[in-house]
Amino acid sequence: MPLDTWNADFDALHPCFQQLQNRRCWVGLTHWPACDCLNQLLPAALCAQSGLPLRFFPQDNTLPFPELYYEERISQHGMVATRANWHDFFNALMWSVFPHTKVMINALHAADIQQHGKPRTPQRDALTVLDESGVIIVASRRECLQHVLDFAWETLFWQERAAWGQEIACFMIGHATLEKMLTPYVGVTAHALLVEVTPAFFHLPLAQQHTYLDQVVSGRLQQGGLASTACLNPFPLLGVPGWWENTAVEFYRDRGYFREKNRERTVEIIAA
C-alpha cells in the first residue's frame, strides 16, 4: 500500500488493527480524517503538561510556534502537529487509546530537554522507541512473560499457543509499528513493556483493557521513566498466533527472525 494513499478498509489488512475497533472514526471516509475529527476521539479533559487542552493541529504553514520542537509544542501549548499520512493518523489513534501514557511520554521528553538541552539522551531514545515501535505484552502467568525475557520464542508462541488471547496478549502502542503492519513482513520487530495482570483482565471489554493498561504504563513512566532502550524487550510481532502464516513449528525455528538472546537487558515485569 502506498504510504500516502488513504484506505478506509485498512483495518481488514491485519488482525492487530482490531484493537482499534473502538476508535473507528474513519468508516466511510474517502480521505484522511481531519484534525477536528481526530480531536473528537480524545478525552474531553485531556491536557498537556502546561495544563492547556491537548488537540491535533494540521502540520502546515498555519501551525503556530514554528521555532519549537514537536515535543515542546505539545508540552507547552497542547498542540500535536499532524500530517495527512498513515504515520500521524496512527499516532492520533494511539493518543486516543493511551492518552495518559502519551502525555507522560511527552512530559518526560520536555523535562529531559529542559535539563539536558535538545541533544538526544538515552532516556529520550527509549521514550521514542516506545512511542514509535512499542507494544505491551500482558500476561496473567508470569512464566509467559519470562519466556519473552528469555527469548524462548518457540515455547512462547508454539507450546503456549492456546494461551494467546486467554492468558497472554500483545497490545499495540507504537504508531510506526502500526504503520508497518499495513504491509507486514518477516522481520518486523517491536519493543515491549511487560505487564503482569490478574486473570480477570482477559474478561474485560477492550476499552476497559486499554484504560487499565494506560493507567499502569503511565504510572510506571511517572515513577521512573525509561533509562535507556535496554529497558525494552525485542519482540518478533509475527510470532503472535494468527498474525501471520505461523501454523507450523518450523516458522519459529527461523533464527534470522526469532533470534536467540545475546545480551542482558534491564527489562522488568510490571506487576499491575
The count of β-strands is 7
What is the H/E string? Answer: HEHEHHHEHHEHEHEE
Strand content: 5-15%
Mean pLDDT: 96
Largest sheet: 5 strands, mixed
**Radius of gyration based on Cα positions:** 19 Å
Shape: globular
What does it look like?
This protein is α/β, with parallel strands linked by helices. 35% of the residues lie in helices and 12% in strands. It has nine helices and seven strands, in the order H-E-H-E-H-H-H-E-H-H-E-H-E-H-E-E. The chain has helices at 35-39, 70-77, 86-97, 99-116, 122-133, 142-149, 153-159, 175-180, 206-224, and strands at residues 55-58, 79-82, 134-139, 168-172, 189-196, 233-236, 269-271. The strands form two sheets. Strands 3, 4, 5, 6 and 7 form a five-stranded mixed β-sheet that branches. A two-stranded parallel sheet has the order 1-2. Helix 4 (99-116) packs antiparallel against helix 5. The model has no long low-confidence stretch (mean pLDDT 96).
Please outline the helices and strands.
Layout (H helix, E strand, L loop, with lengths): L34 H5 L15 E4 L11 H8 L1 E4 L3 H12 L1 H18 L5 H12 E6 L2 H8 L3 H7 L8 E5 L2 H6 L8 E8 L9 H19 L8 E4 L32 E3 L1
Parallel strand pairs: 1-2, 3-5, 5-7
Antiparallel strand pairs: 3-4, 5-6
Helix pairs in contact: 2-4, 3-4, 4-5, 4-9
Any key phrases for this structure?
globular, 272 residues, alpha/beta, five-stranded mixed beta sheet, 7 strands, 9 helices, two-stranded parallel sheet
Quick overview:
By secondary structure, the chain is an alpha/beta fold.
